[in-house]
Amino acid sequence: MTDADRFAGGAGRSRPPGLPALLSSDRLGALPTPSLILDEARMLRNIDRLRARLAPHGVVLRPHLKTAKSVEVARRVLADGTGPATVSTLKEAEVFAAAGVRDILYAVGIAPQKLDRVLALRAAGCDLSVILDSREQAEAVAAAARRADDPIPVLIEIDSDGHRGGLRPEDPALIGIGRLLYAGGAALRGVVTHAGESYGVAGEAAHAAFAERERAAAVAAAEALRAAGLPCPVVSVGSTPTAHAARDLTGVTEVRAGVYVFFDLVMAGIGVCSTDDIALSVLATVIGHQRERGWILVDAGWMALSRDRGTANQAVDQGYGLACDVEGRVIGDLILAAANQEHGILALRPGSTGLLPDLPVGTRLRILPNHACATAAQFDGYAVLRADGAAPLAQWSRFGGW
Amino acid sequence: MTDADRFAGGAGRSRPPGLPALLSSDRLGALPTPSLILDEARMLRNIDRLRARLAPHGVVLRPHLKTAKSVEVARRVLADGTGPATVSTLKEAEVFAAAGVRDILYAVGIAPQKLDRVLALRAAGCDLSVILDSREQAEAVAAAARRADDPIPVLIEIDSDGHRGGLRPEDPALIGIGRLLYAGGAALRGVVTHAGESYGVAGEAAHAAFAERERAAAVAAAEALRAAGLPCPVVSVGSTPTAHAARDLTGVTEVRAGVYVFFDLVMAGIGVCSTDDIALSVLATVIGHQRERGWILVDAGWMALSRDRGTANQAVDQGYGLACDVEGRVIGDLILAAANQEHGILALRPGSTGLLPDLPVGTRLRILPNHACATAAQFDGYAVLRADGAAPLAQWSRFGGW
């Protein structure tokens, strides 16, 4: 059986019992480069880790599907495949609803022009909720809810760290917006916050402090709404760093996280995972050398890795990605130091005392990404190293757009 | 006729004579956000400008199609729609060959594993040429050429500015590789260079200096090959900055350029165009405010604009993009100062003495991108404001992948 046969075999065939799993180098041999590789065993381990961590807290986990944008991944991330889930675009909501997800939070402030699509999804049986932080939005949602005779569920966005949108919990506008929704025909479902600033600090203690800021802000807002006689059944918090570090979730009903499913170098750099947990990599081929400059050129540039430089301000700058051999083992200090559209330049990290490895033209490598959401978005599918070690790679499609 | 009707009308219908062109705000009204807007009139002006500039030099223009990745754009960029053209991936070569382009240069160093696809395209009637800069690659290409009995045309990559790959023209390996190809069964078509460093300097004089470095290096390499008794019919140079500034092209046979078709803020920042020449923008909607911080939130983050921060080191840092009103007129110093996946934060450029404009929730804006290649790659199509001012937008698809 050739590599091409193995690949063409697609998903479904399992490894015969008793046979050893093939090496990744054999399983990836027939893929064109660059390709996006997903290590399913690592992904399943990451999924299990957060489930196990949150179980004792008695909260609902509402995974964010914006990283993977894949129905196959969603089936493995969601508890029973139907939700609850979080999305960042209405396109995601539409694709996942069509695939059977029934409880979706669209977690970007609603624009009035998007309410027709929200209503259509709800009319088709998906419990889609929206978020907002202004009277203008609340009036538009309430008007749409009355027009359609559908009490669109709304969570008010709370600002817990100054990162982007949301009301501070003590802002009197909170109660005004809550009343406007409640009286206006929408359903006031709760409050939602996200400590995006937690990505900028390292270590579990620092993430736990941001988790407490999320909890404190969301619970304070919920209590203010309830004190005003308004309903607030849902108190939703989360980010990948805070979800893995939160010590006390009293008053919280659900936790959101997204990138934990794949992890990436940014998350490794702040201590949420190790590089061995990163499930996503870009398969690349060596296409040249500039030996006197210490450069190895590969056919994966920023079109494959994305322009994300999320580790630039971390303790260890990984350039555009960290090189591994084709089995997924990190190669010393070899990073994608520079990237043009379809060219990547591998070089030793500045200050490294290592030796540049000898990688002839045609050598295949795997490059770990800074930011899984951004790198995955450059591809329309995953070549999946199956967790059971089966020889054929699975091909899982992913989608983009809005 | 509603906006939706106009949009659904698609391409083909022209504006009745005598009627004024509709405002962009009317023509863009029904689009979802974010959407990628292409101003065809600006694009045609950019295409004409470079054609007119190069005509007196008597060189062939071989446009790079990696920016647009669109058959509709290629038809307008290529002289007669069949070539010559440059591409950055074999996927581009395959799509454009299927659309009738017959002369294509694949301008990324060839990996041996890709030669089967090269041969298949050539067997289907496309004159596809490849580039390389090592004996290992030359041996692989010659072997493939002999195996298929097809003299694959090769250009040897020359390094004119230390930017990435290529041989210095005085490198003795140049002649060795030339002989290996010539004797080995491939066709030695010529030399190719690209002064990528020209993007890092501003002003026509600086670009003209890089154009002369391209010319001098490529012509020297061609003369070295010819002096060794080897053929070198093609001497190919170019980048958007150097193509617009070259003063002397003696000895050069063809010029390549790509991003000039759309232009972008990086090109405006180094003086190759003005912001009024930029044909590409991202339509976005205001979704919120943090007034005390001077922030306006929009529904276009880095997933729409890309993570490209190409203006970060220029004299004027444009953040993730420069805001225009929906007609395409720049709004003072308003830039996309920060970007999350689906959130953009508009703010005044640091140091601006302007006033933050009052843009209520629901307001539509257009954001000019730093880097057209990177931003266009985030979308699967262009909503085209037709040059003839016709009301219906055209929808031109684009592709990604490898």
Walk me through the structure.
- 2 copies of one chain form a homodimer.
- By secondary structure, chain A is of the alpha/beta class.
- In chain A, 29% of the residues lie in helices and 22% in strands.
- The first copy, chain A, is built from 13 helices and 17 strands.
- In chain A, the strands form 2 sheets. The first copy, chain A, has an 8-stranded parallel sheet with strand order 2-9-8-7-6-5-4-3. A 6-stranded antiparallel barrel of chain A has the order 10-11-14-13-12-15.
- In chain A, strand 7 (187-193), helix 9 and strand 8 (234-237) form a beta-alpha-beta unit.
Element layout with pairings:
The structure is a homodimer of 402-residue chains.
Chain A: H1 3-8, H2 24-27, E1 35-39, H3 40-54, E2 60-63, H4 71-77, E3 85-87, H5 90-98, E4 103-106, H6 115-123, E5 127-132, H7 135-148, E6 153-158, H8 173-184, E7 187-193, H9 204-227, E8 234-237, H10 240-243, E9 254-257, H11 265-269, E10 280-290, E11 295-298, H12 302-305, E12 322-324, E13 330-339, E14 344-348, E15 364-368, H13 372-376, E16 381-385, E17 394-397
Helix pairs in contact in A: 7-8
Report a brief summary of the structure.
2 copies of one chain form a homodimer. The first copy, chain A, is an alpha/beta fold and 402 residues long.
Order of helices and strands of chain A: HHEHEHEHEHEHEHEHEHEHEEHEEEEHEE
Number of domains of chain A: 2
Query: How much helicity do the residues of chain A have?
Result: 25-40%
Q: What is the β-strand count of chain A?
A: 17
Oligomer: homodimer
Q: Let me know the largest β-sheet of chain A.
A: 8 strands, parallel
**Alpha-beta content class of chain A:** alpha/beta
CATH architecture of the largest domain in chain A: Alpha-Beta Barrel
> Shape of chain A, please?
elongated
C-alpha Rg of chain A, in Å? 23 Å
Give the N-terminus to C-terminus distance of chain A in angstroms.
Answer: 41 Å
Low-confidence stretches of chain A: 1-16
| CATH level-4 homologous superfamily of the largest domain in chain A | Alanine racemase
CATH topology of the largest domain in chain A: TIM Barrel
What is the count of helical runs of chain A? 13
Largest interface: A-B, 61 and 61 residues
Q: Which CATH class of the largest domain in chain A? A: Alpha Beta
β-sheet strand percentage of chain A: 15-25%
Average of pLDDT of chain A? 94
